[in-house]
Design goal:
Blueprint lengths: L2 H13 L2 H8 L3 H15 L4 E4 L2 E4 L1 H28 L3 E7 L7 H12 L5 E6 L5 H9 L5 E4 L8 E16 L10 E2 L7 E5 L6 H10 L5 E6 L2 H9 L5 E4 L9 E8 L3 E9 L6 H16 L7
Parallel strand pairs: 3-4, 3-5, 7-11, 8-9
Antiparallel strand pairs: 1-2, 5-12, 6-10, 6-11, 6-12
Helix pairs in contact: 1-2, 1-3, 1-4, 2-3
Length: 302
């Protein structure tokens, strides 16, 4: 089925006159008549019927027109989007850990938009119930252009670029025995019930590695997906937690204790698929993020 014939059909359906429609389309009337008859022959039904000097849609033509215009509109929208992307404009699909959406990502986005004031650039953002594993899967499925997350080993398809740091601390309820301390070693946490992160969290392998270094295992009370939720459980007395020092901790009934041994900083990364095409607007944003990360490598999300 010829795409031009579909556009000819749509135009004639609205103009309802062969000569006038041909003029608008900048083709001859015989060419338009041939296109419509070819289309009708291919479909096996009449799309138009005569109405004096004009033509009107048949019942089948009216149904077909709705579908044709929906397809043409979607095609035109897609073509326009691709043309914008080719010019360094368009939409960027970004997935990110919620903790990075408090300050880090909005700051980066605002700076990028300010650096490109004449371009039409927008962002589709994905963070609801998104963990590092979800982000990486979304990148592989090409749902996202970029992800901001932790790094997971054995991901050969993914490029990880460090962009921010965040320290790990131990959070305890305000009335907990450890709350009397100003700082703790990981050994100090062993006697107490702990909230830990589920294995699919990017934090889990980091914290497991810290316990392996001291030859101990935590006494697990609950396994939680997200650091905000873990903090909420700690504030209500369900255990203590080795967690990132995120802003929400300041508003909860917890004591934040620096982890002095073994100390650790959580790194955050910009993740992208390797060896695949990224449109100019995505490449421009990637370059901007790298430049900003180099300037502010000591940035902490807290």
């Amino acid at each position: 089925m010829n795409l031009y014939h579909l556009r000819y059909f749509s135009t004639l359906a609205h103009i309802e006159h062969y000569t006038k429609a041909a003029d608008i389309l900048a083709i001859t009337q015989p060419s338009l008549s041939y296109a419509i008859s070819t289309l009708e022959e291919e479909l096996g039904v009449k799309l138009f019927e005569k109405n004096g000097r004009n033509v009107t849609l048949t019942k089948y033509g009216k149904v077909f027109l709705n579908d044709v215009e929906e397809v043409l509109n979607r095609l035109d929208s897609s073509v326009n989007s691709l043309k914008l992307a080719g010019k360094g404009e368009g939409c960027i699909d970004v997935a990110f850990l919620r903790t990075l959406g408090i300050d880090f990502l909005p700051k980066i986005m605002r700076g990028f938009l300010a650096a490109n004031p004449t371009k039409k650039i927008d962002f589709n953002l994905y963070c609801d119930k998104v963990l590092t594993a979800d982000i990486l899967n979304g990148l592989k499925e090409k749902k996202y252009d970029l992800g901001f997350c932790s790094m997971i080993d054995n991901e050969p398809l993914i490029e990880f670029i460090p962009v921010a740091r965040q320290e790990l601390v131990v959070i305890v309820p305000s009335d907990h025995p450890l709350a009397a301390k100003e700082e703790v070693c990981l050994e100090d946490t062993i006697p107490y019930k702990q909230i830990i992160f589920k294995k699919r969290s990017g934090l889990r392998h980091i914290i497991d590695g810290l316990f392996e270094r001291i030859g101990q295992k935590p006494d697990v009370a609950y396994e939680i997906d997200e650091d905000q939720v873990a903090a909420g459980f700690v504030s209500n007395g369900f255990g203590i937690c080795v967690a990132p020092n995120i802003p929400i901790l300041q508003s909860l009934n917890v004591k934040i204790l620096p982890l002095v041994s073994p100390s650790w900083q959580r790194n955050f990364y910009m993740a992208m698929l390797k060896n695949v095409y990224h449109p100019p607007v995505v490449e421009a944003f990637k370059k901007y993020v790298i430049e900003q990360a180099q300037k502010e490598w000591d940035y902490k999300t807290s």
